[in-house]
């Protein structure tokens, strides 16, 4: 489907008349020049890509809602009911930084001239020309930059007074003005777009707003995460709420795509066909730098039939290294990717002269070559930023832009009709607290607020001792309880093994459909671990509350075999960074590492979750809660302890859950030292305490068979005279939050030097940190011989892993028998240091 270039002489876009298209082009030229100045004086960054996106970026920000442009308020850029702009091509940040500086300057000048509060932008929200100095610099360095160079009181840098200089990342982040994604690596940014769009469908927003507008290029769209977006978005039926601009300039970092990576003789490699074959609505424009064509295609998408549930993409032909004026020997294609020019290089000077000629301005010192002295560089940098911004004073351009931004922003309102109550956070409901969880099975009647239908629901958060029910069986129950209490705010998205990993039955109303079943919480999904978790991230990244300190949104679970969860790590890592710095409360991402450990026996070692789930330890402490369950009755108290924390502490954006496949018998807590059925909420709990007499050390267990078989051999160990304290490790993060008295009662000082582990994980990452040097010598792990297990039946694999009952007994007995010699060696090692 093609949108042909056209001149539309008098179509109105709010107050924007296409006869004034020159205003857009002027702002576009200013944006191009400004981003070149950023790279020139910072001597780093990207060049060709940001230039290629600039016309679409400018038009999308200024066209207005009625014409398919962004619905937002620069004065309140993170307003929940604004459209979600995603510069997924994160390295192209300079086009946005430059445009946002121009916008900020226009509003600041208008406010200074008139005193009219409509033009006021809070200093911490605005991006101004002074912030150019912060391009690719850290906040720490910027705090003293001017003072260190004797410029703190220089009038040229007066904008920094009181507000400082804003740090601008090399790849764009969600804290930046209208942007709603940490863009950049391997298509991760754009992959979350389907989830963001689905969020607003789920909460009942009208189909056209908020909309998700994402920018990305052809090389990043080759990445697996981005490729999986194709299926994710059509499966979620996002319709025209999701709109992607695909910059097709056939240029990557160091090669072309067609004619480079892909031989040009393969004519079947067609970008349009690739998207239409996935069911998307594909629009094309032959010149992605032509403002009339861009405005035309934006309007066409806005007028698209809302009942058409296919997502939309515009593939526009662009030039990497685009420039709005003629340039001799223009540098284009992948050669233009990095800012690889020396300061004030001949090519940069040539570009600046076209700007000077167009607007009758003169840049200072650029023709004189590079500036070596830091102070002089900063002065020239800010001077020439001001020269570029002076174009706002030409022909009323600044007034036009300021008025346009106010007109667009005034359309953003604080109340829109939604299906959910945005004034309360259901995840703070007291029924979700560990102390209030019902021990008896619940038979409940629930009503569908959308259809009016009622149904009976059974939920069993706990089971009787001896029942055959592995920990994974409790997963559906905790999600079902979440959905019952929160009115269906816990969404699951897993590969087509949702039933197998026990996510399927967490949904009260079944599979989600935006039209026929909006309260269904089980999203249809393919075998796309990266895409599924990206969709989950998109869901939890949104918040419908106008108050940034309150949460009105969704939580999401994405699960698969523990062995495959590393496919989810990169998107989750980027999400954790985004959540840390978010200006508003966000939801909680859940990673279910199901069928984990060597217990995934019959599926063969390609499916063993032994090493793989340990990637979930690779986050800053305090930003993730890891849970490893061995018993059914550990799941509800352990999970809801984590949920209670995450719902109240914004910093925690991820909860990981590791469970294994076997349906082991539910433990008899009456035989444990800690008989509390909710003991898992404490992170570590005591299964067997020391008996009177000589003590032989601490044994910490984690994992299904590791713990089950240890419990099984406790009577035999007692008969053998082995006196060890046995501890179940569910979550170190939960244990860290217990009172010091409890932590010392479980693990007193020195215990970590007298400890062994029994775990279905590895000797590379222990369940607890800071353990003694001899833990590796005595612990039982699935990689005990530093080899990959071979596979076979469950009993075969557990025996090979040395986690069978006989191996566990022998390992613990050896640990106990050699305690005197163990401690003697440690003392000798310490004495040798004196």
Description:
By secondary structure, the chain is an alpha/beta fold. Helices cover 33% and strands 11% of the residues. It is built from 25 helices and 20 strands. The strands form five sheets. Strands 11-10-12-13-15-14 form a six-stranded parallel β-sheet, sandwiched between helices. It has a five-stranded parallel β-sheet with strand order 3-4-5-7-6, with helices on both faces. A five-stranded mixed β-sheet has the order 16-18-17-19-20. Helix 22 links the parallel strand 19 (755-759) and strand 20. It is globular. The chain starts with 11 loop residues before the first strand and ends with a helix.
Number of helices: 25
Q: What is the residue-averaged pLDDT?
A: 94
Strand residue percentage:
5-15%
Q: What is the total tally of β strands?
A: 20
Straight-line distance between termini: 80 Å
The largest beta-sheet arranges its strands as 11-10-12-13-15-14
Uncertain stretches: 1-15
How helical, in percent, are the residues? 25-40%
Briefly note the structural class of the backbone: alpha/beta
Principal-axes shape call: globular
Please compute the radius of gyration using only Cα atoms.
Answer: 30 Å
The main pleated sheet reads as: 6 strands, parallel
């Amino acid at each position: 489907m093609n949108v042909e270039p056209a001149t539309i002489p008098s179509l109105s876009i709010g107050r924007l008349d296409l006869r004034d298209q020159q205003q857009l082009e002027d702002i576009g030229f200013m944006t191009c020049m400004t981003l070149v100045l950023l790279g020139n004086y910072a001597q780093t960054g990207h060049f060709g890509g940001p230039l290629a996106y600039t016309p679409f970026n400018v038009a999308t920000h200024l066209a207005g809602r009625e014409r398919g442009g962004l619905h937002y308020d620069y004065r309140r850029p993170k307003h929940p009911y604004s459209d979600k702009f995603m510069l997924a091509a994160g390295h192209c940040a300079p086009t946005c930084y430059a445009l946002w500086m121009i916008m900020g300057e226009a509003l600041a000048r208008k406010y200074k001239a008139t005193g009219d509060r409509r033009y006021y932008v809070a200093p911490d929200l605005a991006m101004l020309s002074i912030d150019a100095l912060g391009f690719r610099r850290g906040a720490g360095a910027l705090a003293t930059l001017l003072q260190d160079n004797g410029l703190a009181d220089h009038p040229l840098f007066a904008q920094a007074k009181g507000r400082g200089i804003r740090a601008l990342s090399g790849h764009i982040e969600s804290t930046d003005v209208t942007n709603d994604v940490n863009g950049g690596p391997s298509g991760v940014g754009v992959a979350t777009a389907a989830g963001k769009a689905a969020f607003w469908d789920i909460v009942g927003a009208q189909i056209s707003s908020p909309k998700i507008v994402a920018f990305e290029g052809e090389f990043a769209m080759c990445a697996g995460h981005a490729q999986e977006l194709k299926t994710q978005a059509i499966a979620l039926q996002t319709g025209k709420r999701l709109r992607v601009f695909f910059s097709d300039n056939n240029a990557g970092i160091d090669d072309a795509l067609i004619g480079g990576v892909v031989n040009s003789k393969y004519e079947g490699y067609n970008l349009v066909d690739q998207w239409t074959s996935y069911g998307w609505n594909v629009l094309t424009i032959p010149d992605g730098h032509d403002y009339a064509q861009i405005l035309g295609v934006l309007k066409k998408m806005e007028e698209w039939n809302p009942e058409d549930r296919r997502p939309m993409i515009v593939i526009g032909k662009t030039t990497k290294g685009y420039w709005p004026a003629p340039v001799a020997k223009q540098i284009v294609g992948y050669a233009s990717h990095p800012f690889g020019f020396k300061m004030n290089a001949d090519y940069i000077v040539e570009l600046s002269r076209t700007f000077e000629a167009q607007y009758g301005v003169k840049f200072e010192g650029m023709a004189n070559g590079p500036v070596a002295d830091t102070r002089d560089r900063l002065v020239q940098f800010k001077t020439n930023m001001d020269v570029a911004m002076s174009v706002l004073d030409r022909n009323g351009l600044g007034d036009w832009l300021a008025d346009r931004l106010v007109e667009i922003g005034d359309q953003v309102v604080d109340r829109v009709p939604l299906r959910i109550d945005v004034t309360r956070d259901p995840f703070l409901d007291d029924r979700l607290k560990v102390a209030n969880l019902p021990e008896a099975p619940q038979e409940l009647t629930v009503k569908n607020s959308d259809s009016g239908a009622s149904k009976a629901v059974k939920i069993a958060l706990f089971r009787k001792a001896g029942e055959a029910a592995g920990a994974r069986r409790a997963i559906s129950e905790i999600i079902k309880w979440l959905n019952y209490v929160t009115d269906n705010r816990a969404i699951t998205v897993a590969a087509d093994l949702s039933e197998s990993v026990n996510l399927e039955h967490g949904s009260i109303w079944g599979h989600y459909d935006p039209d026929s079943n909006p309260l269904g919480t089980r999203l249809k999904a393919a075998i796309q671990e990266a895409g599924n978790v990206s969709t989950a991230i998109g869901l939890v990244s949104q918040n419908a509350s106008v108050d940034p300190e309150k949460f009105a949104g969704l939580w999401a679970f994405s699960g698969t075999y523990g062995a495959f969860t590393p496919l989810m790590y990169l998107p989750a890592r980027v999400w954790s960074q985004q959540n840390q710095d978010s200006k508003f409360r966000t939801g909680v991402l859940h990673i279910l590492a199901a069928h984990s450990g060597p217990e995934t026996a019959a599926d063969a070692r390609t499916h063993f979750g032994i090493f793989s789930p340990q990637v979930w330890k690779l986050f800053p402490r305090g930003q993730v809660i890891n849970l490893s369950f061995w018993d059914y009755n550990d799941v509800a108290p352990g999970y809801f302890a984590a949920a209670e924390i995450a719902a109240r502490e914004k910093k925690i954006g991820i909860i990981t859950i590791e469970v294994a496949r076997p349906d082991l018998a539910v433990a008899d807590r009456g035989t444990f030292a800690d008989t509390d059925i909710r003991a898992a909420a404490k992170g570590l709990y005591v299964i067997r305490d020391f008996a009177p007499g000589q003590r032989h050390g601490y044994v910490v267990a984690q994992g299904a068979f590791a713990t089950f078989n240890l419990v099984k051999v406790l009577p035999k160990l007692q008969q053998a005279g082995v006196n060890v304290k046995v501890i179940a490790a569910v979550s170190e993060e939960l244990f860290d939050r217990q009172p010091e008295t409890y932590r010392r009662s479980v693990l007193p000082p020195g215990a970590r030097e007298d400890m062994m582990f029994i775990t279905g994980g590895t000797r590379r990452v222990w369940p607890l940190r800071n353990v003694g040097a001899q833990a590796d010598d005595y612990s039982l792990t699935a990689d005990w011989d530093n080899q990959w297990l071979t596979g076979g039946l469950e009993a075969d694999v557990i025996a090979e892993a040395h986690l069978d009952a006989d191996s566990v007994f022998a390992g613990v007995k050896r640990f106990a028998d050699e305690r005197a010699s163990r401690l003697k060696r440690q003392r000798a090692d310490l004495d040798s240091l004196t």
